[in-house]
Amino acid sequence: MSAPLPGDDAPNAYSQYTNVRHVLIEYIHEQMALKVWPSDETLRRQARQIASDGNDPFDQTYADYSPA
Prior knowledge:
This is HTH CENPB-type domain-containing protein. The chain is an all-alpha fold.
């Protein structure tokens, strides 16, 4: 087995997406346990917070991206 290359531990787009997905699913389960059904806008806001810690000047998530 070869040693990992420098930078192999850096997150890529897929790992970032799966992390957002995992954390967002946990959030949904927590909310539903409280009998709260989050709206689409609430989920988008939460995904933005997870993806960029609210530090994204474009205010986008992976789901918001739409190539022209």
